Amino acid sequence: MAAAAAAAVGGPQPPQPELPAPGLALDKAATAAHLKAALSRPDNRAGAEELQALLERVLSAERPLTAAADGEEAAAAGGGGGPGAAEEEALEWCKCLLAGGGGYDEFCAAVRAYDPAALCGLVWTANFVAYRCRTCGISPCMSLCAECFHQGDHTGHDFNMFRSQAGGACDCGDSNVMRESGFCKRHQIKSSSNIPCVPKDLLMMSEFVLPRFIFCLIQYLREGYNEPADVPSEKDLNKVLQLLEPQISFLEDLTKMGGAMRSVLTQVLTNQQNYKDLTSGLGENACAKKSHEKYLIALKSSGLTYPEDKLVYGIQEPSAGTSTLAVQGFAGATGTLGQLDSSDEEDQDGSQGLGKRKRVKLSSGTKDQSIMDVLKHKSFLEELLFWTIKYEFPQKMVTFLLNMLPDQEYKVAFTKTFVQHYAFIMKTLKKSHESDTMSNRIVHISVQLFSNEELARQVTEECQLLDIMVTVLLYMMESCLIKSELQDEENSLHVVVNCGEALLKNNTYWPLVSDFINILSHQSVAKRFLEDHGLLVTWMNFVSFFQGMNLNKRELNEHVEFESQTYYAAFAAELEACAQPMWGLLSHCKVRETQEYTRNVVRYCLEALQDWFDAINFVDEPAPNQVTFHLPLHRYYAMFLSKAVKCQELDLDSVLPDQEMLMKLMIHPLQIQASLAEIHSNMWVRNGLQIKGQAMTYVQSHFCNSMIDPDIYLLQVCASRLDPDYFISSVFERFKVVDLLTMASQHQNTVLDAEHERSMLEGALTFLVILLSLRLHLGMSDDEILRAEMVAQLCMNDRTHSSLLDLIPENPNPKSGIIPGSYSFESVLSAVADFKAPVFEPGGSMQQGMYTPKAEVWDQEFDPVMVILRTVYRRDVQSAMDRYTAFLKQSGKFPGNPWPPYKKRTPLHPSYKGLMRLLHCKTLHIVLFTLLYKILMDHQNLSEHVLCMVLYLIELGLENSAEEESDEEDSVCGPERCHDSWFPGSNLVSNMRHFINYVRVRVPETAPEVKRDSPASTSSDSLSSLHSSRRPKVLQRENSGTAQVFSLVAERRKKFQEIINRSSSEANQVVRPKTSSKWSAPGSAPQLTTAILEIKESILSLLIKLHHKLSGKQNSYYPPWLDDIEILIQPEIPKYNHGDGITAVERILLKAALQSRMNKRIIEEICRKVTPPVPPKKVTAAEKKTLDKEERRQKARERQQKLLAEFASRQKSFMETAMDVDSPENDIPMEIATAEPQVSEAVYDCVICGQSGPSSEDRPTGLVVLLQASSVLGQCRDNIEPKKLPITEEEQIYPWDTCAAVHDVRLSLLQRYFKDSSCLLAVSIGWEGGVYVQTCGHTLHIDCHKSYMESLRNDQVLQGFSVDKGEFTCPLCRQFANSVLPCYPGSNVESNLWQRPTNKSIQDLIKEVEELQGRPGAFPVSISSETNLSKEMESVMKDIKNTTQKKYRDYSKTPGSPDNDFLFMYSVARTNLELELIHRGGNLCSGGASTAGKRSCLNQLFHVLALHMRLYSIDSEYNPWRKLTQLVEEMNSQRGNEEQQPEVPVLYHDVTSLLLIQILMMPQPLRKDHFTCIVKVLFTLLYTQAFVALSVKCNEEDRSAWKHTGALKKNACDAEKSYEVLLSFVISELSKGKLYHEEGTQECAMVSPVAWSPESMEKYLQDFCLPFLRITSLLQHHLFGEDLPSCQEEEEFSVLSSCLGLLPAFYQTEHPFISASCLDWPVPAFDIISQWCLEINSFTERHAEQGKALLIQESRWKLPHLLQLPENYNTIFQYYHRKTCSVCTKVPKDPAVCLVCGTFVCLKGLCCKQQSYCECVLHSQNCGAGTGIFLLINASVIIIIRGHRFCLWGSVYLDAHGEEDRDLRRGKPLYICKERYKVLEQQWISHTFDHINKRWGPHYNGL
After folding, report:
1. Is the CB of residue 572 less than 8 Å from the CB of residue 656?
2. How far apart are the first and last CA of the chain?
């Protein structure tokens, strides 16, 4: 069929006149059907031509493109309807033609039916959420879309969710990339078998139409690309792409139709004939010609052809007869190609034109021109990719090209095309402005192609993929090379990359490198690379560009002006471009058979290194004061050596170079180690912080195994093969401490300042210890390495699971085997560490789940050497030691300050045995002897650390001593053998006992040694000196008769000279003069004279004396084997494992004795002589001073400890009183007036000025308070089951059952029917937006506070709060606050008098109450004289009002009415009481003072409120008190009719509100009996309301039954206290009205039809009254300071009622408690009840429904809760992260959900902004009156908004290891942590967010 189509297409035909123009307007469907029929005939030429003509017309590229090119005006003028219309028309035609006359949608469905969907292949772009399962993946890049992941079974697998960085595609169904067990249900079936064959005619039209359509698209692309002189602007390109959006989308839709359509598209895209016919531009069609020219120009301007060759071709063009395109495309580097004839060319290029690539051999100098500069397009696919690259990878095009990948044939063709364009991609990328976006898109494509091993292998073989990649990388880096300044600045021939270039700074190279790493992970590809010598040479050439980059030169004078940050780029480049490919290659060199590869790499690596040494002119000394951290060639060499020995059983010596090369190799890595010590000694401080950054990065976990580890390994290899004396002296010279190693007490150091000497010496010794004890590459197995790394990290600090994964250097190549999270990691972790579950600290800081080392790990495995190697910060070493010390103290193993323990090492691999010779060389022994002597003599600049390392080295030497040492040896070495040297042999064991009598030293003339006379026989046993001036050997020969001078430097020189002489004679001439001249600068040698010291010590004697010195006792050492001979047989004694220096010395002496009998004998001898005191030391004045100083310091330290301890205990007790949020036990009462009744007047301490005194009118004291609006109360619901967060569309939360909603409805209902002012007294507000007042309990003078605020205002430091809004922190406890509540002056005794009970009757009291309320606001001071106190009271009232929004204060119909203020004020009291009740758990059973009790400010708050309430006197007629206590005459009802609206009936009043109104209307302080009187009266009303509500709720039968039973008892004596009588009376009274008439059926359901027993009735009444009693008791507790009794829940009612004085005193007899007995009616019960019921009846005359609704009050609110969250976070995430915003219907970037009410909001979403408030802030005001708790869906974190500030609270979802996963970076499954959620809820309910969370910031309404 394709062939037929191609034939039919033919050349572009001239437009045919047969088809009349109006034909276009014909019905499209009919035309399509007609054409389809025509094409279905066996002879379809005519139909084909007709279709071509139609397509020519429809898809003509002329009209729309002028528009695209010249802007819209031209289009409007000449294009009828502009470009859009024409293009839409064209698309419509295409759809019709494809469908062949049928409906397009039906056509799509029909094609989909033939989809053999074995692969998912869903393509996604950046930010898409996908999954990766390591258990199922074969390739590390495998990823799945959410749908396939959830439909497959991955339980228990190691998977994670991730946000795609660059985009990707789903691999479900692709068995090359993942295991079939992980496929989802849809892609498990191999479905190709049962899919029917596609009917021929279904896709026939597509095969004709699509080539034209794609050609049209290409023409558009050619047209739109105008190549100006400079790079075309982004804008133009984007414009063209916008115009083409519909066309590309159309293609994309086609790919989604499934396999059948994809195979047609593949045919079209790869068919070369079609392409040739349509695009050659040879026809008469002018448009096509123009388009072709544009294409050629674009090719040319891309630097892909050579203009001069064009001339050669021009002459031959007619004769050869080739098409222009072929010629143009092949303008290559050679002219011969032009002779080829076209048919010939086709044959050769069967493999898509890459066969001829290998013309130019890749040599290091020239690049392969064909790879870089030739492109020839032979199919639509190739040109499409070309334009995709030209347009910088537009997302739509990338998606289209990737959507096609499930088609296997396409995949191969596309991969080859991609490879063919690889060089072009690189060039475009380098020029691009948007290189980041472009990089992502490139990788999006390449990762799909190269992750497949089979495909990668095929392309490598057929298209030389490796050659292309390496060449392209080389070419890319060559553009940014600079001359290297390392070593010899002038003559250096070496070039390195410039790390300051954008290419490196912006990581522009990463797409190419990541592709390279990706293909090297395939074994077949890597093998080809390792076998190809040419490639290896090129690659080493590439690596050498990085060798020595980013050179640092030490600043010696000025501090650098500008700190360069290039080191980031340098480290990233070495890791990504050098190390990762290296690890990729290493992973394929694991077995013996691969030896050859290693030999190849090592060979070319050494060659490259040799070239490098030559290029930088390196002889034998590194240039001073410069260092580079980048030696990738050294590291390649080292790692391949390590692999060769470890896995391939290669003989190490067969791959090592000669000695001279080894000496050169060790210099630079050693230079780095010395520089590290210099940097840590602050010698590089003038280079700025960045040099420290480099030193840290070098050892940091992601870099260490590609940087410091290979360096140390290489040094170990060099050390094991070079002369040990040479190596040791090199080390001390590199570390610049040679001059320090003298026996003399003074010396001059020519290269190092004195203040750096100590730390450099420590550095040198530490380096030697690491070098000799590290076994990472010298014989440890992978599991041992993992364990050692893990122990080192855990010893520094407890770690979370993820930070451990991060800190343990995994093999950077993902295929290496140790995958983090793999089995070995988990098993090792569980072996060495214990898990500590996440806990809370009371301060609110959230702990994560941590791992901490097991005790036996501290005991046996703690390895300080490994810790030192792996610490980025020096403080971590200290931290590890502190933790070790703590462990020893805790386990009782060692009480003091221990030294780092000595750890046994794993055995060395036999190849590296030579390393131990370092420990047995004279040079090292001289150094050790000298240092021990200096330490013993207290020379300056030596530290405990030095001693520790010296002992460590001695111990290492004893552990690794050669076995052959015999005890007879001593007799042999007579004096003549050791004539010229310190020690007789090189074995440490025998050298230890060797006595050294005299030493000649060269000292400055000022040194104390000079004064002494030299002893007679200086030529005795061994005279020698550590000589520090660097003079040539000749000068030192003069004293050869009497003594030998031993110099480290000279020693090293000699060795080097010998080696070089051996290797070549002419090198001599070069080196000799250089060495001598360099060091004898005239006048540089200080004036030194010679002195001879008497020593007479051996290492053993020094050690024993050291033991005495350390223990501070004479003769403290006693050989243990004298008591216990066993000790010599079983030497492993646990008591020596841990301890300090004394223990270490004992351990060493024991080991020395074990190794040789001679040593044992000598130790005993030394101990037998009574040791003389330490060589006498004259204490000079200066030294005395230092001694005194030490003592003084010690004393000062002790004093400080004492002070600190005292301070800590004080702080602790303070914290307990002030900050403790949740433990009532240890509260110490704060001094608030009510707490201490015995003081005559309350005394307050001002925490600012520290004075104590009463609060007075003139100088009032105030409590530090925080006022905040709260809607917590409004969130109470009446059902116990907490609401769940909605996670499906069906689950929604409606707020109508919340407390706030119910109260709102009630108030608006009252306001509809009753008088406004009376409504506002019948209820409380503040359920939403109520003001809650809390205090820390500290007081201050208000004037002190004002000056404190002033100072805060002037303080420019950024605070977390806003001083302008009155916010501050309590000066004492730093708790957040925003106002000061004045304390009411008054004495407590007075309140005691008030509390004495009087025996007045209740009637008298009622009268008194009424009179007191009637008085006008009698202030203690008249209002006219404004005092400071009254001013403050007013201002705090203002603050309280301003705390909440206007809408939560104004409920009156007439704005600004005084009733409103009145309502608001008593509601503040209500809110605070209700909230305190909730904090106590909703009841008062626990009794006692609450936690808030000591810190409660209710008493003060009441005074302020009462003061203001009394300004509004209620007109006595309206005072509800009258209605409660007096019978009113009948005139009431008439008055109701005359007026517009009646007053609210008493029974509709909220009793608690009435209580607060009554109390706040009384003059303060209140008398206790008045209080009780008010409570008694109100209780009668409440009780009646209980009956009324009950009667309305139950059904007719119940009512009549009750009415009947009660009526019988009405005349009994206690009728007024019998609930039956009262209930029946209420029912009979209310029956007179219409209340019960309209009995609907729905009301019956309200009360369950259980039969009422007296018990259940009693329970109902008690439950109804309890909320009132609780609030009343709390109020009484605060006003009169009485404690609340604790009780059981069932007796709460009786306890509270007796506490409130409702129960008559004599009432204790009856057993079953009856609530009615608390009633105390002020007037005859039946009269007052009937009066109350009458009001109801008169209302229900008109509004029976509403009348009933108002009577049913819900009194039993449950405690408020946050929404219940699902167990697994994924359920929330999957539902919400794709949910669209209700405002703009887009998916928000940062979706969030409110945890209080479940509303879905956009964080920072601009779409939902209203008046500059973003949605979260707005919602926090509406839902929580300024407090919002939101779960950020994409981050799993909770964010709190409080007013104008916000803070990140943390996460309540943790992974299996108890860790948060903020921003879902790790993507591990998360589970709810119930404890954390409880804490969050607790903080919400207790309003303590401000106090507990510390990191607040302003949100500027932008959340």
Report:
1. no
2. 60
